[in-house]
Amino acid sequence: MSSPVDALRRDYAVPAENPLTVTGLRAGYGRTEVLRDVSLTVPAGQVTALLGPNGAGKSTVLRTICGFTPASGGQVTLFGKDVTKQTPHRRFAQGLCHIPEGRGVFRGLTVRENLLMQGGRGREKPAIERAAAAFPILRKRLKQTAGTLSGGEQQMLAMAAAYVRDPKIVLVDEASLGLAPRLVDEIFEFLHRLTHEGGSLLLVDQFATRALSMAKSVYIMRRGEISYSGDAASLMESDVFAHYVSDPTCADRPHTSRAGHA
Fold this sequence. Notes:
The chain is α/β, with parallel strands linked by helices and 262 residues long. 37% of the residues lie in helices and 24% in strands.
């Protein structure tokens, strides 16, 4: 018997030309407004980078797109449908996947249990197989409690959700934060594979150059607003990018106090 989530997945199986469109988005916490008139588009089958200094509002954009942070104005459109007032559950069922900063796993559950929760009823075996194909180390850790994994392995488990759920659009928030260079390479290789298989990505990452090398388009945020939007390749050759990487709050390197975890 199929679940309501499975039914919703079928209803939204065919993505629109632009899987995600955000228009005039406003949001915040309590009386503090964080986002002001944010607009962006994520085209099908492409990587869109969202960059900016710490505290610019990038994570709040992703949380508002998902519905975790309510929008106080503007519109979020998924696959041509307005979802601004919908719950996160319904948005995820329509093909959205959010990989949050800070290892989005259930630490008290085993790796297997984490994957089963992501896969849904009737999809248990395919969920494990897809995750293991993406990150073979997870097959060896199936019985291990997620909280006892290394930081890199926890991030792999979190990233595996993007395979297990088979989403159409993935929001990735600082996937490489605090990881050793070899694991950063593995994470970015995985993200490349997602797009090659037809997925669309909105990518927030501290490694600006790496993110731009993957991205077709880019948006730069400052103080809750979009200060630049354009072609990623053109940006890398412009004065705007030179100014961006020279800003100490826009690090193009790991945060040294947290880097190097395997």
